[in-house]
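User: Hi! I'm working on a homework problem where we have to compare a predicted structure to a textbook description. Could you give me the structure for the chain below?
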Amino acid sequence: MRTAMSGAAWVAYGQIYVESSGRQPELPESFGGQQNGLCGAAVQGALFLMTGLHTGRVGFVVEVYDEAPAIDEFWEEIVEASFRPVGAVALNGWGGEGHWPLDLDEVDYRVRYCGWGMDAGHQAAPPMDDEPLVDRYLVQFWPAPPAPDRVVKQTSAQAAYWHRVARETPPPPTAEQRAELKRERERRAAEEALAELTREWGGTLPSERVRDASLRAFGLAQLDRPLIDDIDRVDPDTQRAIARWAVRRVCVDKQLDQQEWIAAILDGIDHGVPVWSLLPAPAAASPTDNQQVRLAFRPWGWNDDVDPIENLWTLLFAADDDDPLRAAFETVWLAACAFGDGRQQELIGELRQAFPVLTNRAW
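Assistant: Happy to help. Predicted structure tokens:
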């Protein structure tokens, strides 16, 4: 026999715990489905131990045996349960008040929990430092295969009360049931997230390709929800043409096309010439430099407070995107920003006139 702990232990709310999993289980799940209400062992890796004293110091001893010890009739309350650690084991007071490592192996144990003076402890005030302890407890461990818990001896009203509570508490869910509950929660969360996303998109969720292509598609959906699906369904060449149209339409509206070099750029992209090769030096140094230029001249949207040329770069690089669908969304969105709130529907109407395929819903 080995004494793993002996002395005064602090309890609160009439509780003290043996823990190995790092998680302190709640009272109902610890005792649910048991016959005894003093040693809750329904949660693997933890023991929830009840005391008579509500708050203060109680006498406590923990012993470890190689085989089952004889029952000591001195104790007024005796219960047994099974326990298997899932990590380092310790006796812990409520709220971390007191910690005693028990050095148990990760094997199956039988646990005998014994109590004396529970009714007196329940009625007593917390003992002062110079006062004797009112109630005392003993925990004994020995290796044994799992078996149902049982009440060996009952004397106090407190023990009778907690035994009745345990027997009226349903057992905690099994591992399979917990997994199923988790899957159900995840399924409901996914359904709610999908429903919320659908509401945000105006009641109809676009294709995943649209959602992945560009955040601008969401902005356009707030202006004209069908337009998103229409642009998605046309072929890549048409999407690229829509992007070029949006760039030119903004340049005309802002009279940027009156500058010869900008007009030359617009003509060039209409003929499929890469944007970077049309820009004046040093921006047109090389395709590699194009990435740096893209970062330098691509703010989050159209901004009337910056140099118009910076807005032009934003449009041009959006139109030059490798993904035709993203290029269309980006440029039409930027064009809508450039036109402003009062003229955005005018722009979308012109876009549909320029591309009649966008108004043909017989897909």
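For your comparison, note the following. The radius of gyration is 37 Å. DSSP finds 14 helices and eleven strands in the chain. Good luck with the assignment!
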